[in-house]
Amino acid sequence: MTDFEPSSEEVEKLREQLGREAEEMGYHLNPDLDFTRDLVCGLLVNEKRYGYPSCPCRLASGDRDEDLDIICPCDYRDQDLSDYGSCYCALYVSGDVLDGEGELLPVPERRPLPEVRGKASRPLSAPSEESLSTLSYPVWRCKVCGYLCAREEPPGVCPICKAEMDRFELFL
């Protein structure tokens, strides 16, 4: 446990930053400011505790590689928004929920159990040597938003969802 308690200024600064980034990418933060501030506070506490902003509604292991799928924005956000109108922790909501035309629904946990997690993060099928030999550069996929790019290394930050380099996987 940590004794770190972020200041209201730190929470508000990050909430505003997340809100701007969300809107730029076509997402929305939950309009309930008190609720959202509590979640942002949890992100700041987890960043201080683990060194990365893991989802405050899930139990992180403290091992960044093991928790890549739950670093905010988590790998499950887009599917949760599509299916339920919000992500698991309800930090991000759909336009319908934001406009009051939809309601917040319970979102089931999509994260695989720890013993299955390693298998879930692997590509469905490995590319063949023949297909790889025809490409000039490897293709990288952002595991958060699906962005694809062909280059020697994945980008430092995803231009779409702002996920860091370690959230990319070799696609082809």
UniProtKB/TrEMBL annotation:
It catalyses: [thioredoxin]-disulfide + 2 reduced [2Fe-2S]-[ferredoxin] + 2 H(+) = [thioredoxin]-dithiol + 2 oxidized [2Fe-2S]-[ferredoxin]. Gene3D superfamilies: 2.20.28.10, Ferredoxin thioredoxin reductase catalytic beta subunit. Residues 137-171 form the Rubredoxin-like domain. Its cofactor is [4Fe-4S] cluster. Heterodimer of subunit A (variable subunit) and subunit B (catalytic subunit). Heterodimeric FTR forms a complex with ferredoxin and thioredoxin. Catalytic subunit of the ferredoxin-thioredoxin reductase (FTR), which catalyzes the two-electron reduction of thioredoxins by the electrons provided by reduced ferredoxin. This is ferredoxin:thioredoxin reductase. Signal peptide: none annotated. Belongs to the ferredoxin thioredoxin reductase beta subunit family. One of its GO terms (molecular function) is iron ion binding. SUPFAM superfamilies: Ferredoxin thioredoxin reductase (FTR), catalytic beta chain (SSF57662), Rubredoxin-like (SSF57802). Its EC number is 1.8.7.2. Keywords: 4Fe-4S, Disulfide bond, Iron, Iron-sulfur, Metal-binding, Oxidoreductase. It comes from the Archaea. It holds the Pfam family FeThRed_B.
